[in-house]
User: Fold NAPDH-dependent diflavin reductase from Coemansia aciculifera.
Amino acid sequence: MDDSRKLVILYGSQTGYAEDTARRIARQAWRRHFTTIVQAMDSADKQLVFTTSHPVLFICSTTGQGAEPDNMRRFWRFLLRKSLPHDALSSMQFAVFGLGDSSYQKFNFPAKRLFRRLQQLGARPLVERGDGDDQHYLGVDGQLDPWLALLWDRLLEDMPLPRPIIPESVVPDSTYRVEVCDDDVETQEYFPEDSTYRVVLTVSERITAADHFQDVRHLRFAIDSSDSENTAAVWGPGDCAVVRPQNLSADVDAFLTATSWGIYADRRLRVTALESGGSMRVATLRWLLTSHFDIMGVPRRSFFEMLSYFALEGSAEQSKLREFSSTAGQDDLLAYCMRP
Assistant:
């Protein structure tokens, strides 16, 4: 890959959809012979962002009533500093795509504010801001696909293709390396944020009437102070508690049976993230399926795209999977996968 053909893709994601979209864009960029850096906005090196001569793409979702996602708030507060000169980003070319729902009053407000603030700091937009809308009959993809077509046309004006686009039949580069470890290697259970604590549910009291259709409960949790990881637990009025779920063991067993992966379930695996400095964790497949993978969720469009690479070439299954991952096939995907 030519290092001069680089894209920086930064996302602000609350439920994972913006990250999924960012990685989908990265795969499309790879097929057009770009190298990519894909990171959450709060994880990005600000020095890189403020000095890069490469285009920067921002994929930004909305949470609550028009608020920024958790993993972009520090980045957003930094952009709002009054000490930043008005031409701080004069070397940047950028594009912003927002993911939201037009039934909310503050539709795509984080993306709109970000687009405006980047311009105030001297950055130059490659294309107009894109506004993905869950209310579109194709969902967010209804606006994303035409916006991406405009973006690729614009980028290829400045950086023409050195070779033909890599065809869809070619499997993209992996972002992880997975290896079987020796049995004496200790597993490393991990959580995505530092402010994650182990607690015990002590009270679950229904506060709505027994004959009311909503079951609203008062929950009380006890933090185990003997656990060294919990000693820094601090909160205040207005803070929210987010419960990290696990899949039921019966569902994990059913998944392992369906995939014929049961023989690997309790073997220790070394998982290395290839695009984030080579960070490595050791875990069992059973633990990953229990605590990390959303095996009971409704698959997104990108799931069918990735699955199509591993179906038998030329098979009816591969053809259907590629249809599900195309814009034209979204009605069939909705009927097959999402509608009751």
